[in-house]
Model the fold of this input.
Amino acid sequence: MARLAKIAKTHKKPKFKVRVRNRCRVCGRARGYIRKFQMCRICFRGMALKGEIPGVVKASW
Done:
């Protein structure tokens, strides 16, 4: 879980646009971010296995 201060800091507009940091919408994690779903890999995997993300199915071949 990310610190509340770090999450609050990302909501403010940075002085320079290259300083923008993508964070998970669910837990606030900054690493392992998947842009298409706007969440980290851990939250993505958990929600995908529960069937909470439409159109995502486990691969099998």
DSSP finds two helices and two strands in the chain.
